[in-house]
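Why run this: before we spend reagent on co-expression, it is cheaper to look at a predicted model of the complex and decide which construct boundaries make sense. The entries below are exactly what would go into the expression plan.
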Amino acid sequence: MDWVSVAGLVAAFCTTVSFVPQALKTIRTKDTSSISLAMYSLFTFGTLTWFLYGVYTKNLPVSLANAVTFLLSATILFYKIKNGSKDKKAMS
Amino acid sequence: MDWVSVAGLVAAFCTTVSFVPQALKTIRTKDTSSISLAMYSLFTFGTLTWFLYGVYTKNLPVSLANAVTFLLSATILFYKIKNGSKDKKAMS
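The model came back. Tokens follow.
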């Protein structure tokens, strides 16, 4: 495997697994005050769309990576929505 | 353009621009207490690697989208590192 392909795999690995520590932190602390609701709404919808795109184009890496990121992102979004009114109060 | 290509573009748009509201919120509030340092370290490195991968493979959409996400992610990481000791104190 040439080093350009290795770089692509390293990049895919980093951007996918990066959501693991954020999801763990959010589950552990239940604190979402500085997390953006708009970001996780867009990102969760985006990864779901990427996943469906991967399924329809029969692209396993795209569908697999985005299935993982979708679940992690949806978990963070769940806590953000659950904390909704509390987070708004903390802002004021 | 078929609807599968449209879905791919919608997905790419959502996952790229999703970092705009998070960066704006972080710049405005300067609060990074519930943001994961590990996530933004990995994600910033990952988008930089994606960008270089896009440049070397002459893939304009990959290099362009990841240049944007890298800048947004690096901005959030900058504030997280700046708030380092303050965030740790808030946790205890």
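Chain B touches chain A at residues 4, 7-8, 10-15, 17-22, 24-26, 29, 31-36, 38-43, 45-47, 49-50, 52-53, 56-57, 91 (CB under 8 Å). The domain at 3-91 of chain B is CATH 1.20.1280.290 (Monooxygenase). Bring this page to Monday's planning discussion.
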